Amino acid sequence: MFNYIIKRLIFLIPVVIIVAIVAFLITHVIPGDPVRVMLGNFASEDQVMQLKSQLGMNKPLHLQFMQWITRIVKGDFGKSLFLNIPVTEAILSRIEPTFILAIIGEILGIGIGVPMGVIAAVNHKSWIDQLSITVSLAGVSIPSFWLSLMLILVFGVKLRWFPVCGYEPLAKAGLGSIKYLILPGVTLGFMQSGLIARMTRSAMLDVLKQDYIRTARNKGLAERVVIARHAMKNALIPVVTVIGLNLAVLLGGTWIVETVFNIPGTGSLAINAIMKRDLPVIQGCMIFIAILYVLMNLFVDISYAFINPKVRYKNKGGGA
What we know:
By secondary structure, this protein is an all-alpha fold. It folds into two domains: 2-73, no CATH class; 96-264, MetI-like (MetI-like fold, Orthogonal Bundle), CATH 1.10.3720. 74% of the residues lie in helices and 0% in strands. Helix 10 (211-218) runs antiparallel to helix 11. InterPro entries: BPD_transp_1_N, MetI-like, MetI-like_sf.
């Protein structure tokens, strides 16, 4: 397995390079001149050209790319045009609320989705199954901004149980910071639970049809033992895959939810960067999200061996 992990980490390098190329090209074809946005609509052409020269944006595109990719290889993602700080520092300064929010949302999603999917599969074609399908469909279908606004209206405005917006860092408020993330965490958790419940139900239904499940029941094992020891263990692999990919999405920045609740996370950082045409921050966020996806995929692959000991990793070809 060690060789497999090393190979996957090596494969991370070309993936990041490809994402870097795409990020550079996309940010140079989107409409809007970042220099004019910085200087305002009343800036003269001379002022625009002078700032472009200072930022190196007056050079041919291929020269800009070579200089930029050289910095990326060295770990230098440049400097934010508006925040006036390094891109790495800007992302790291915003990662705390996003990380905590992602963990809260994923824990709620797993805690609701997995039991709901298992119960639905065990009670297949019953009213419990139909109710589970309805709830999970609602979790997948309801727009996150609408659910966020409803939670704000009920629990923030009417009942005044939780703050409706903002965030205080852990260093300042301690565990009191969590109260700012309860409502957005519930929003994300409900959305995640719908997808996880549907995947768990589907995987469990496939496993419950297998011969070894019937054999276990014929041996006289209690139903809870059959479900917990035999069915769940073999149904977890596709569920863990979905959970891992969802967590990568959340860690990359819950853009809409962070915007609605005015949480200063990586999602709101990326949105502000796009609105202001802050190219270095946009590029840095894209590469950051790509790295999270690759690392989370690696973590999910490794977890397969712990979930099911029958999974073995080949030393040749890096496959599983």
